[in-house]
Automatic annotation (TrEMBL), chains A, B, C, D, E, F, G:
SUPFAM superfamilies: MTH889-like. It comes from the Archaea. It comes from Halococcus salifodinae DSM 8989. This is DUF211 domain-containing protein. It holds the Pfam family DUF211. InterPro entries: DUF211, MTH889-like_dom_sf. Gene3D superfamilies: MTH889-like domain.
Amino acid sequence: MIRQLVLDVLKPHEPTMLSVAQEIAETDGVDGVNAILIEMDEEVRNIKFTIEGEDIDYDTVTGVIEDTGATVHSVDQVACGDRIVDEMPTPQD
Amino acid sequence: MIRQLVLDVLKPHEPTMLSVAQEIAETDGVDGVNAILIEMDEEVRNIKFTIEGEDIDYDTVTGVIEDTGATVHSVDQVACGDRIVDEMPTPQD
Amino acid sequence: MIRQLVLDVLKPHEPTMLSVAQEIAETDGVDGVNAILIEMDEEVRNIKFTIEGEDIDYDTVTGVIEDTGATVHSVDQVACGDRIVDEMPTPQD
Amino acid sequence: MIRQLVLDVLKPHEPTMLSVAQEIAETDGVDGVNAILIEMDEEVRNIKFTIEGEDIDYDTVTGVIEDTGATVHSVDQVACGDRIVDEMPTPQD
Amino acid sequence: MIRQLVLDVLKPHEPTMLSVAQEIAETDGVDGVNAILIEMDEEVRNIKFTIEGEDIDYDTVTGVIEDTGATVHSVDQVACGDRIVDEMPTPQD
Amino acid sequence: MIRQLVLDVLKPHEPTMLSVAQEIAETDGVDGVNAILIEMDEEVRNIKFTIEGEDIDYDTVTGVIEDTGATVHSVDQVACGDRIVDEMPTPQD
Amino acid sequence: MIRQLVLDVLKPHEPTMLSVAQEIAETDGVDGVNAILIEMDEEVRNIKFTIEGEDIDYDTVTGVIEDTGATVHSVDQVACGDRIVDEMPTPQD
């Protein structure tokens, strides 16, 4: 089970970041969604989505995103299993 | 449901940041409002509003702000769903 | 209701920062006051007041300050509503 | 018993980081897996896995990783015993 | 009531920072005292005292300090009221 | 009683950091061991061990390490007594 | 009563930092001792001791240290009273 998913997304100006976040939040297995505006230019907005839940469905979530004309640029972080495990910083980072 | 909303706002000197924050705080679904003065010049003040609640109504909140002659420059962060999810920093940031 | 108020104040050397803080702390709706010396020169002291309470009265507090000959240079932060909401840092800051 | 394992892994683009993390999360003795994209180029992706559990089996976990064509570049951190002990920063670091 | 007091003090080498801290700690209304050596030169030591209690008496505390031949260079922070309020950092700092 | 021990160790490539950490974790009085790869070159690996327990036996632990051909380069931190006390940062550091 | 004591100590190579820390930990009124290696050269090691307890006896502790041939270079921090009070950072630092 996917407990946490951090996606880097390139989104056209419409629909709004807010409406996309609301739509993701309503999909099964999602408890909550955080959306942050990283950067924007004439055409697109770079948005970072942090999604948490008991059993996130990757295809459903990315489907919601892509239906708005946006693209998932990269999966930056994922946490799977019975609980969310945080990344452990080490000197090698 | 919108649990948290971070707005970057350009506001004329009057009415005060305090009175706008109080007005937002009294709208339905809002628990509390934080307002910070980022910068000010001759004409305007750049204010950052952090709004939290059980069910924030975006149009109502931005209506309160715009009625004072201010403009919402950007929605910098939003958190939707059953609980507030914080942004997860990753090496890609 | 105002739960938290951060004021940037320019104050003559007398009365002391301590006595002004004590006076503010005794006004209705205030639980506690933090006062920090930011800078001082020949004439004035730049003091930062962080005031917290259940129902801070802005006019009463600024009245106490101004009665000492000090001036409120700016309201740097305010938190209103049912609870104190902290500012949420975002990449836009 | 191994309670925490931090692995630096070089992985081909397919299968995805997500699917490898899910597979590790399903092995015995693992509670949860965090996977972060550190860097990527034409050929490979540098992924950092933080794995936590009651009794992680090193060979099983690295087996899952290597079956996908990926290689474990280094074991960056490990925590063994009855509980997870965090690294203690000292001036010598 | 004064709940916390941070004093910047210039003290001769004797009596020791320890003995002055102990003496302040024994005055009424004081729960505890932290004393840190900031700097020292041939003549004096720059000590920072953080004093906390239910009802600190400013004159008593500064009297203890001055009786040792030391001087209170500045009151750097004070917290008054029913509880200790911490300073709230803002972009204006 | 030794509650925490931080050792800077130079270790040949074999046996692995993991197996040495597991062996230390199984000695009496040790609750858990954290091992971090600080650096490595052709010959050796610089490993930092953070060991915690109710009653760590220094000679036993260093014996386990030295039996693998590794050397304890320095004891960087130790905590003794009834509980673990953390280092207190001061301006003198 | 002394609740916390931070000492900057110059110590010959023998006896070890560990044995000195153990000895301090066994003195009355001490709960725990943290010892950190700050620096070392041909002759001496610069060790920082953080000592905590209900009622630390300064002369006993420094006696233990000096009996080993070490010298207390400075008392960097002390906390006295009914509880440990931490240093409060202020803009003046």
